[in-house]
Amino acid sequence: MSKKHAKTLVKVAISLGLILFLLSRIDIPALAQNLARANPRRLAATIFLFAFSILLRAWRWRRLKI
User: Fold this and answer.
1) What's the structural domain count of the chain?
2) How many Å apart are CA 44 and CA 51, to the nearest integer?
């Protein structure tokens, strides 16, 4: 395995470890209860706006790289 692949593997392992740690600290029943009470339109709008902002940031970074 090359040094570059090993470095990438370490980064992925650390990221997955941190994600799993954070997910283990979430109270799943409380999260489900809050999502059940949430306004579906507002939740959909929030998810859409979040995804759209990521697309805008990606586009901006692509433009800056030129």
Assistant:
1) 1
2) 11
Can you give the residue range of the structural domain that contains 42?
3-64
Q: How far apart are CA 33 and CA 35, in angstroms?
A: 5
**Cα gap 38→32, rounded to integer Å:** 10
pTM above 0.70, yes or no: no
Write the single-letter amino acid at 46: T
Q: For residue 28, what are the CA distances in angstroms to 32, 33, 50, 59? A: 6, 9, 22, 34
pLDDT digits (tens, 9 = 90+) for 21-61: 999 999 999 999 999 999 999 999 999 999 999 999 999 98
